[in-house]
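Readers of this paper often ask what the protein records in our data store actually look like. Nothing more is needed to write down the fold, since each code stands for a local backbone conformation. Below, we set out a record of this kind in full and without editing:
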Amino acid sequence: MESNDILSEEESQALRQADAEVSAGDDDAPSPEGQVKDLHPDHWERIVADRVPALESISERMVSLLKTTGREFFRRSVEVSAEPSRTHRWGAFARRLPVPTSLNVLNIQPLNIKGVVCLDPEFVFSLVDVFFGGNGSGDRCVENPDFTPMEVRLVRKFVNRVSENMREAWRPFIDLTFELGTSETNPIFASVAAGAEAVSVAGFKFEFGEKEMLLQTVLPARLVEPIRFLRDAGQADGSEGETAKWRNRLREDVQDASVVLRAVLAETQIDLRDLATAEPGDVIPLELPPTMNLMAGNQPVIEGTFGVRKGHNAVRVGRFIDRKALGEKYGRDH
């Protein structure tokens, strides 16, 4: 099938022209009153995620941890700032990476998925420059498209420490292990998802002197989505009063719920042979214990003695086995 059968030359030219006009315009400028603003084709690639409490908390922890890691590797105080997490399609994100970029694959356990730590070329050069006694303020030779063995070695040492920082930052939400795998410069060999699948990209800017360098962590969206709206214990919640009100109401409703109790009067053990040969009229001896347990499900809650009251089998309550299960901890002791 010829391309002209799908789009004519005039239609194709019109699309390219519209794309160029939108790209050159101010995306943030409001549209004139009464007019509808055109939607750019890559609009969904550039959406900034809304406020995500979990990711914000993780980024704050990462900034603190990366400052310590940066001071260790760059031998000076390093300013670290977090950029807002964004959701991209992996294919579109990989195409925008500079060449070469250090792509370090992380094996995330126990979920058995992969992430990537991306370091720009200037970041790699500064690590090596400081290691050999420089101040890290020089520029990398652009004629060398690949990283040297020494650069790869230092990067892997640095990323190993970053992976430990990531584990600490994620611990309040989910206990994960980030294990460094291969180091690549080609996104094809460091892929964390299919080209059209979503990934969450968090950027961390390192600054010392007049130099700025970027570290990015790329994680599959299926790892990020389940914890998007979680909060850790250190985050303030503006709805504490509302939460307390609902907690009290739920507590009262739960304590008024009906509970089915059961009791085992007596138990014994016999051989399977004796059970198989038993006949009507045979007697299985039982010893009635002095006390018995009343259980809710499989949880024993009351210890008492068996008897009869008003012609019905009954249990006289002796003591409560687990007062907390009955609500004493929450203000009810009867």
In short: The chain is about 30% helix and 25% strand. The domain at 257-330 is CATH 2.30.330.10 (Surface presentation of antigens (SPOA)). Residues 28 and 37 are 11 Å apart (CA to CA).
